[in-house]
Amino acid sequence: MIDLVEKLYRNNTLSKEELVQLLTGMESSSRDHLIKKAHATRMHRYGDSVYMRGLIEFTSYCRRNCNYCGIRSENPRAERYRLSLEEILDCCRIGSELGFQTFVLQGGEDNYFTDERIVEILESIKEQYPECAITLSIGEKARESYQKFYDAGASRYLLRHETASRRLYEKMHPGMNLDDRIKCLQDLKKIGFQVGTGFLVGLPGQTVMDYVEDLVFLQELKPHMVGIGPFIPHQHTPMGHEQGGSLTDVVTLLAIIRLLLPDVLLPATTALGSIDPLGREKGLKAGANVVMPNLSPTKVRTKYALYDGKICTGDEAAECRVCIEDRINSAGFTVDMARGDHLDWRGLS
Ligand code: 5AD
Ligand code: FES
């Protein structure tokens, strides 16, 4: 197994068969070696910097009905809210005062936010903070819409593929299909966005072969960012009584992704921090180099409940900012408040 890890470290690729072998044969000594190599690769490419993104969860309305997600349209107990333009700009102001240069606007697929409204938000943020980078994460849209967002100042887009297994994708996402999702990712890339995708780990029925599909998909798409995290049950969803994903599996997959895509921007996610008090730190030590502290107003924090037990729901932005810096430092890394573009983007704007 150590040989396969070495091969992955040297060549930044493995065949499908080798990935199966690596994942099925992983025991703790090979995992430790894998994590060391992922760390070495991250240090070589990005040093000990951890990039900070300010997350603004601006709507909890969603027209989709993902079976795992707490804000699915068929959850009548989900508390719905929308932030006004002023409230969003307020989050940016607070974030900017704390040093953030990247804002991530995330929400459910909410028809209230028409293209025009999104464009207005983007232009307003850009007017006040011309140097900042804006990331959008608002789901599947027509290519023309994505183009309008890009022209209005969004330069990055997050759209997890969730799972590259067709069987599992269809089971988890009523009325959706994987090809539409992939088409969106391709459109975003063609337009020129820095594109983030990613997947859930530990969905009921998810197998090693499914993770291999995810890894092969990432190798083909070559996204700039990859967000992965454990599935965590939400009590008011059809999957509320299922078992969640494991820390070890997420950390192992983070390390493999760092080696498959050495320059990728890889967050240690809130979900990872929610299943283990040191989850994010363990992610950072396995190759992750981004964290996304929450800038949403505290009055709405608990309402953006994708899963149960989400951390930081009671903390003000400034508290999260201090907390995360301490955690990053104690894990042996340094906070970097720069825009934190992908290496291919450095020097461009
Ligand atoms: N557990 C973990 N992650 C979840 N997401 C949605 N629901 C859950 C859950 N129950 C993730 C999805 C989505 C991202 C915003 O949150 O992967 O893309
Ligand atoms: Fe909307 Fe999951 S139900 S993102």
From TrEMBL:
Residues that hold S-adenosyl-L-methionine according to the record: 162, 181
What species is this protein from? Answer: Tindallia magadiensis
Q: Which cofactor does it need?
A: [2Fe-2S] cluster; [4Fe-4S] cluster
Indicate which residues the UniProt annotation says bind [4Fe-4S] cluster: 62, 66, 69
Q: Where does (3R)-3-methyl-D-ornithine bind?
A: 137
CDD domains for this protein: Radical_SAM
Q: Does this UniProt record's set of keywords contain Metal-binding?
A: yes
Q: Which UniProt keywords apply?
A: 4Fe-4S, Iron, Iron-sulfur, Metal-binding, S-adenosyl-L-methionine
Tell whether Disulfide bond is among the UniProt keywords.
no
Which protein, by its recorded name, is this? Iron-only hydrogenase maturation protein HydE
Give one GO biological process term: water-soluble vitamin biosynthetic process
List the molecular function annotations (GO) for this entry.
4 iron, 4 sulfur cluster binding; metal ion binding; transferase activity
Q: Which InterPro entries match?
A: Aldolase_TIM (IPR013785), BATS_dom (IPR010722), Elp3/MiaA/NifB-like_rSAM (IPR006638), FeFe-hyd_HydE_rSAM (IPR024021), HydE/PylB-like (IPR034422), rSAM (IPR007197), rSAM_sf (IPR058240)
The record's cofactor note says: Binds 1 [4Fe-4S] cluster. The cluster is coordinated with 3 cysteines and an exchangeable S-adenosyl-L-methionine.
Domain Radical SAM core: where?
44-263
Which Pfam family, just one, is annotated for this protein?
Radical_SAM
